[in-house]
Design goal:
The protein is of the alpha+beta class and 631 residues long. The strands form five sheets. Strands 1, 2, 4, 5, 7 and 8 form a six-stranded antiparallel β-sheet that branches. The protein has a five-stranded antiparallel β-sheet with strand order 10-9-13-12-11. The chain is 51% helix and 19% strand. The two termini are 54 Å apart. α2 packs antiparallel against α3. The N terminus and C terminus are likely disordered. It folds into three domains: 32 residues; 302 residues, Beta-Lactamase, CATH 3.30.450; 232 residues, Histidine kinase-like ATPase, C-terminal domain (Heat Shock Protein 90, 2-Layer Sandwich). It contains 17 helices and 20 strands.
Length: 631
């Protein structure tokens, strides 16, 4: 209830602050203040509110994290301790089993081998084992290590460990830590041990019998493990007890024995494994309980609330200091920002007032770019947008027209009819191999012409298209001219606009070598190479050439370019290249009458990838890169 009242009061205070600021804005409380004062006031209020709220949220968040971290670390420590104790107890169990199965069951107890093996096993494990002894079913000592004398007043058969082994012959039994009082020690020292006992079958010559094996584990094995974690616990402590609450180890065990200390959370021994929050005598602690295997013992970790509060208080001072420093820094930044924003606005306002008063039209242009362009940038932006829209529409229209021309130029019906007639003639003349060759080349040509509707393809595909086209034409023209390809393999995996070489080859045949006799030595040479960041593909023939007037106008006036074959002239190819790559690229024409013609295709060297192809076809290539560079 109290928490709800505090929350409501907090919300009420926050809402009253926000409402007061809103009232100042809406009711004209800020009228009469300059813009710098308004900005500074608003930023200061927002800074204080934000930093305080952030500090409270951060404090609550870390308060919960500190509590959870303390509990989690204790859980891990308890779990690791249990694993260590499990391993130690398992080791002693294995020693007990080794004595039973490898020595008692294998050797006659009266033999030297028995005594030798019994003594050897003890010596190997003397760091963990205080003593080992074997009793018959009457409680008489048969053998022990180290060799010692049993006290006269001791009756082993009346000891709990002996009776437990006799009552349950299938299991190994653990005692709680106690002083070993069976044997006479020449040093008159008393040793704390944990006794493991079990019923065994004894091989005594021809008279087999039963008895009890006693293995005393050194208490220091357990004590060292728990003392180590308590030495570095920082207020958190751990103890070990039996399932009925008998204390096996406690860091303040001596004080407990003298009555100076009482463990308030001893009842945790009866709990199931887990984490609990217990309150005793007004003090709350987190208690972690975990069981040790084989014994039923409980390792208990106690995290007092005082330990958590100490850590939280240290962090609270850190949060308060950080919030104050951050607030001072932000207030300084707010002052700089408010002055930076308001000064150009105030100057602009003064110049506008001067103009309204009949002064000169010397409007202040300064400050940020937004203020500097406040007066005239909107109209200028509209004009620029309109111009850009018209340019985009024009480019899209030209591009669609160019693409349509390209689609129409993919298959020249006249060329296709002539090729099919040639194939038919070859079949009728039983020139099957020639017919197969023609069909194969035509298929390659058509496949690349279609290219799944793509406008941009690899240069290698464009060259293959040209090879197929020229192979067909050489057959049709009965080898009246030669064709030579000299293409640098380096350019094969670069981008090009589709079908830009074939129209030039077509013109070279129709206006160059196509009308020459075989004896005239007609020849067309296609070369391709990369120079710097550009690629150049040249088509050169030794035909009749063109005069200077035609060369100068062939790329300027489409009406002066004769069209045959596919119907696509040089101006079309030139326009398509420039639309795709820019006006700095396109065709270059060199020709002399009776000397021949050389046409050079100039395109940028752009590696062929699906991403580059899509960007080129959507006219977006380079925009992302330019944006990154601007950033």
């Amino acid at each position: 209830m109290l928490k709800n009242i505090r929350k409501n009061k907090k919300k009420k205070n926050e809402s009253s602050i926000i409402g007061r600021l809103r009232g100042w804005f809406y009711h004209g409380r800020f009228i009469g203040f300059d813009i710098q004062s308004i900005i500074m006031t608003v930023l200061t209020a927002l800074t204080i509110i934000t930093t305080v709220i952030m500090g409270l949220l951060l404090y609550n968040r870390f308060k919960m994290a500190i509590k959870q971290t303390a509990v989690t670390n204790t859980e891990n420590m308890v779990e690791n301790t249990v694993e260590k104790l499990d391993a130690d107890l398992l080791n002693v169990r294995q020693i007990t089993n080794a004595v039973n199965y490898n020595i008692i069951q294998e050797y006659d107890i009266s033999s030297r081998d028995f005594n030798r093996q019994f003594s050897l096993l003890y010596e190997i494990n003397a760091d963990k084992i205080q003593s080992m002894a074997l009793y018959d079913d009457k409680g008489n000592l048969l053998t022990a290590e180290p060799v010692t004398v049993q006290k006269d007043a001791v009756e082993p058969s009346e000891q709990d460990w002996y009776q437990d082994a006799e009552a349950d012959i299938e299991n190994i039994h653990f005692s709680i830590p106690h002083i070993q009082n069976l044997f006479v020690d020449g040093t008159y020292r008393y040793y704390w041990v944990v006794s493991l006992s079990r019923s065994v079958d004894i091989n005594d010559g021809e008279q087999p019998g039963s008895g009890v094996l006693l293995v005393d584990m050194k208490y220091s094995v357990i004590e060292d493990t728990l003392a180590r974690i308590n030495d570095a616990s920082n207020g958190i402590y751990y103890y070990l007890c039996s399932r009925d609450g008998q204390m096996i180890y406690h860091p303040r065990g001596t004080d407990m024995d003298r009555g100076y200390f009482k463990e308030e959370y001893r009842e945790a021994a009866t709990y199931e494994d887990g984490t609990y929050e217990l309150t005793v005598n007004g003090r709350t602690s987190n208690v972690i309980v975990n069981s040790v295997a084989y014994t039923g013992w409980k390792v208990v970790g106690v995290v007092p609330e005082s330990v958590q509060i100490a850590s939280i208080n240290r962090f609270r001072y850190y949060i308060i200091t950080t919030v104050i420093i951050l607030m001072m820094m932000l207030l300084g930044v707010n002052r700089i920002i408010s002055k930076k924003i308001s000064r150009p606005i105030l100057k602009l306002n003064e110049s506008v007032k001067a103009y309204e008063a009949g002064g000169p039209t010397d409007i202040y242009i300064g400050g940020s770019s937004e203020i500097r362009h406040l007066g005239y940038s909107v109209q200028k932006s509209y004009e620029q947008i309109e111009a850009l829209m018209q340019e985009i529409i024009r480019e899209q229209t030209e591009r669609r027209k160019s693409e349509m021309d390209a689609l129409q130029s993919q298959i020249n019906p006249h060329f296709l009819y002539n090729t099919l007639e040639s194939i038919t003639w070859m079949v009728e003349a039983k020139k099957n191999l020639d017919a197969v060759f023609m069909i194969s080349e035509l298929a390659k040509l058509l496949r690349i012409s279609l290219s799944k509707g793509r406008t941009v393809i690899r240069i290698s595909d464009e060259i293959q298209h040209s090879r197929s086209y020229m192979n067909i034409q050489k057959v049709r023209y009965k080898e009246r001219f030669q064709i030579e390809f000299d293409i640098d393999e380096e350019i094969n995996e670069y981008c090009t606009v589709k079908l830009i070489v074939q129209p030039i080859l077509e013109n070279a045949i129709y206006y160059g070598v196509g009308n020459m006799d075989e004896d005239d030595g007609g020849k067309i040479t296609i070369r391709g190479e990369k120079k710097g960041d550009d690629i150049y593909i040249s088509i050169e023939d030794n035909g009749m050439g063109m005069n200077e007037d035609i060369v100068e106008n062939i790329l300027k006036d489409n009406n002066k370019v004769p069209k045959h074959g596919s119907g696509v002239g040089l101006i079309n190819v030139h326009s398509r290249i420039q639309l795709m790559f820019g006006n700095e690229y396109g065709l270059e024409v060199y020709s002399e009458p009776d000397e021949g013609t050389r046409i050079v295709i100039h395109i940028p060297a752009i590696p062929y990838t699906e991403e580059n192809r899509e960007q080129l076809e959507t006219q977006n290539y380079g925009k992302g890169r330019a944006t990154d560079e601007e950033k």
